[in-house]
Write a structure and sequence with these properties.
The complex is a heterodimer. Chain A is an all-alpha fold. Chain A contains 20 helices and no strands. By secondary structure, chain B is α/β, with parallel strands linked by helices. In chain B, about 35% of the residues lie in helices and about 25% in strands. The N and C termini of chain B lie far apart (about 50 Å). The model of chain B has no long low-confidence stretch (mean pLDDT about 85). Classes of the chains: A mainly alpha, B alpha/beta. Chains A and B meet through helix 13, helix 16 and helix 20 of A and helix 2, helix 3, helix 4 and helix 5 of B.
Chain lengths: ~550, ~260
């Protein structure tokens, strides 16, 4: 018999969990790097507090105005804003990563009721909830000042609205946790998210092209149906109370209670299945061994003329690219963005109308943009290696082979992207003429070669781990970002001067010659840098292993 | 066979004020199945990381098969296979892609790599999962794959950091048989494990590291002879270990304090 004298109460468990989270934060900040994070957190907290307070004032003024001017029905808009914020922010903050922290509490002897209340406690503690409650409180104060008669309805409606929101947010979070526990689903959703963000760029050109400016957007057809959702119900309850329509008021309050019952009930069922031991792990259990005819993997003819380690690294990079939804989409994005730019700023549907950009200006500008996007990952090229980074240091190879393999693969990718984008450009805005065409190609070659050396140095010196299928915290180190920025500005400046030199001297082919010379010099510098970079890699291997294996 | 496979002199590694490995002199002969033991935090993994090139020593020398690691790191690495702490796998590759990658990194040609990959996957009972991403493998399957990667190039020294952790009994038996055959062919195996029964069963020689210092080294018989006990009594490795690291009997007094539990 275990010596448990008494079960701690729910409040005590909440206090313990709060203490646990505080200790995790405090201990996490003891690491040197995290002190900078602390400064970042303090600055972010100050900025967030200013935003919340400013919006409190805005919500107060809005609510006061609507209630005192007899437009109580417009209160729904304020509740809709809060509703969207409350439901969307936690999803974006979670960054498509599974968060198992709350579920870990299940190893303790909690009752289902305590687990449920703790779950709601977590829901009330996040930033979206706290800020939303502040804004609702400011609306309640506005009601008390502006139309005190509506205060009881305002308080009941707002309390129900808050409870519906917190249960709904936890319910969505719990379902997302279940979905995101599956790696493939996670990666697919990240890919779809990025794709949808990119697609939004096309809304304006599409509306410009096909939109009928005389009609109301179709979204307004949905408005009558929205009135049965919590935000509209709360606003309409206030309107009913304002107009003395007690039947309508009861109907709206009843609607909110029904929503609360539904979300609470569904949340209870979700937490119950978690409580009963729902398995979210995706690791496959060892299966029975099925003997089957040995299949020789198709022998790779990839880069058969390259040394085996270089070819091995290139092949590995290819596999990683095809399995990293985010990276894969970054390959789709450049030609798509070229299409977007050409629709916006050039061609027959240009936003700039008669001042549309000419192919002579557009060609180099778009190529520069492509290089900017495609070369950026090279500044943190070990980001996705994880524990595999150890393989590079255990194998009998020098880092130069690994860098060459990675760089060669990147150059191949850049070439494919440039060819596709050039095709799109020529299709959309026309051929810019041979001198400019070759100047641009030579400039691209120089920009790539010129950056690789510094990018390799940056990747070895300032590694930052990234994880496939996650969005939260997926960024390069600040130094790598600024290095890339500085190098790209420098190379952009040189390229501009060279391109303009052709015009000054009246020789359209001069930039081609100058860029060819610069590319050769950059290539020489690149080759010369490989050995020093191998030595640097030896010096930095502990940093790399510690950072990427964490 | 008297050739030294592993030899270190005053091998030391400091992390700031902490000396994790302190002047370690190791001698491991070729073909030995060598167990490297120590309590948690004693310096075992740090030593293995130095011996395999994952960590630079602060001072001291190390030779693998007569090759000074400092001056011939590439040649030395060519002779060794490693299952490191954390396994060092590229989780977004499939098992067969990873083995192919490792084979190429060690300079094997394409057809040889393909052949060995298929054979090793079959042996490790992973052939039915050759197209599964490593990220989706169980811990034991990852361990088996890491072991397959460590031997794909036919190393002369094999460093294994907790190789049987999470591996099922069936596979563990096959692996032990494989390792036994490798030592019979002259391969040196340098193994760390907290499961002393495994070390006692497999290893002919043992070294014990404690608080960064090497406190014992030799064959099991030599170590047995070095500790006090009744004549004719055959001490187990656990008893030897506890005796050497100075913990023998200490747990008894600590147990007495846990009256509420015992």
């Amino acid at each position: 018999m275990a010596d448990v004298i008494r079960m701690p109460g729910v409040m005590e468990q909440l206090r313990l969990v709060a203490g646990l989270r505080w200790n995790l934060l405090k201990n996490g900040l003891q690491r040197k790097n995290n002190r900078w994070d602390l400064i970042g957190i303090i600055l972010a907290a100050a900025g967030s507090a200013v935003m919340v307070v400013a919006l409190c004032v805005a919500f107060y003024v809005g609510a006061y105005f609507f209630l005192t001017k007899g437009r109580a029905t417009w209160m729904s808009l304020l509740y809709w804003a809060i509703f969207l914020w409350w439901q969307a922010v936690p999803i974006l903050v979670a960054g498509f990563g599974a968060n198992f922290e709350f579920r870990k509490l299940l190893r303790f002897p909690l009752s289902l009721r305590a687990f449920y209340i703790l779950g709601l406690g977590y829901g009330f503690a996040d930033f979206a909830a706290v800020s939303s409650i502040c804004w609702i409180a400011s609306m309640v104060v506005a009601t008390a000042v502006g139309r005190a008669r509506l205060l009881p309805v305002m308080m009941v409606g707002s309390a129900l609205f808050i409870l519906v929101n917190v249960t709904l947010e936890r319910l969505i979070g719990s379902w997302l946790e279940k979905i995101f526990a599956n790696r493939r689903a996670r990666e697919l959703l990240v890919g779809l998210f990025v794709l949808s963000m990119v697609s939004m760029n096309f809304l304006n050109p599409a509306l410009q092209h096909w939109g009928d400016h005389g009609t109301r957007p179709g979204i307004f057809l949905l408005v009558p149906y929205l009135s049965w959702l919590p935000s509209s119900l709360t606003g309409n309850a206030l309107e009913a109370a304002s107009g003395g329509d007690s039947q309508a008021l009861l109907l709206r309050i009843g609607g909110l209670v029904s929503w609360l019952a539904a979300t609470s009930g569904l949340l209870w069922l979700r937490y119950k299945s978690q409580y009963m031991g729902e398995e979210l792990s995706e690791s496959g259990a060892p299966s029975a061994i099925r003997r089957r005819a040995r299949r020789q993997a198709a022998s790779s003819s990839l880069a058969g003329f390259l040394p085996p380690p270089v070819a091995g690294v290139m092949r590995k990079e290819f596999h990683y690219l095809t399995r990293n939804g985010f990276s894969f989409i970054t390959l789709i994005v450049p030609p798509v963005m070229v299409m977007f730019f050409s629709m916006q700023f050039a061609g027959s549907h240009s936003q700039l109308k008669e001042h549309g950009l000419s192919p002579q200006t557009f060609f180099p500008a778009v190529m520069a943009y492509l290089i900017l996007i495609l070369l950026s990952p090279a500044y943190n090229s070990f980001a996705f290696e994880g524990r595999g980074i150890q393989s590079y240091f255990m194998a009998p190879v020098r880092m130069r082979d690994i860098l060459v393999g990675k760089n060669l693969f990147l150059v191949c990718v850049v070439m494919v992207e440039l060819v596709i984008s050039l095709g799109v450009l020529i299709w959309r805005i026309g051929f810019p003429g041979f001198p400019l065409f070759f100047s641009t190609i030579a400039a691209a070659a120089f920009a790539v070669m010129g950056q690789l050396t510094i990018a390799n140095w940056s990747a070895l010196s300032f590694p930052k781990k990234m994880e496939i299928g996650k969005m939260k915290g997926q960024r390069n180190s600040g130094v790598a970002v600024w290095t890339a920025f500085g190098v790209q500005i420098l190379i952009g400046g040189i390229a501009t001067v060279v391109l303009l030199a052709g015009r000054w001297f009246g020789n359209a082919w001069l930039p081609v010659v100058l860029f060819a010379g610069l590319t050769a010099a950059a290539l020489g510098g690149y080759v010369a840098s490989l050995d020093p970079l191998s030595i640097l890699a030896e010096r930095k291997k502990e940093l790399l292993i510690e950072t990427l294996c964490r | 066979m008297n050739e030294l496979a592993i030899r270190t002199e005053q091998l030391t590694r400091r992390f700031g004020a902490l000396t994790a490995v302190d002047s370690v002199d190791l001698r491991v002969k070729a073909g030995q199945f060598f167990g490297f033991l120590g309590p948690n935090g004693a310096g075992k993994s740090t030593t293995i990381k130095m011996l395999t090139g994952l960590l630079a020593p602060t001072s001291g020398r190390m030779e693998l098969l007569g090759l000074d690691f400092q001056y011939n790191p590439i040649e030395a690495k060519r002779q060794i296979g490693v299952v490191p702490e954390g396994m060092g796998l590229f989780e977004r590759l499939t098992g067969s892609e990873y083995l192919h990658f490792v084979g190429r990194m060690y300079g094997l040609d394409g057809p040889t790599t393909e052949k060995r990959t298929a054979e090793l996957l079959e042996f490790m009972q992973l052939a039915d999962r050759e197209k599964t991403l490593i990220a989706d493998y169980s811990h034991g399957m990852q361990k088996k794959l890491a072991l397959a990667a460590a031997v794909i190039h036919g190393p002369r020294i094999l460093f294994l950091d907790e190789p049987f952790e999470g591996v099922d009994a069936l596979a563990a038996g096959a692996l032990k048989a494989l390792l036994g055959r490798m030592t019979a062919r002259g391969v040196t195996i340098f193994l760390t494990s907290h499961v002393l029964e495994i070390v006692e069963r497999l290893c002919s020689h043992v070294a014990i590291i404690h608080q960064g210092r090497l406190v014992a080294q030799g064959s099991l018989e030599e170590l047995r002879a070095g500790i006090p006990g009744a004549e004719g009594e055959k001490k187990t490795l656990e008893q030897i270990f506890l005796s050497i690291v100075g913990q023998s009997g200490a747990e008894q007094s600590r147990l007495e304090e846990l009256t509420w539990l015992t």
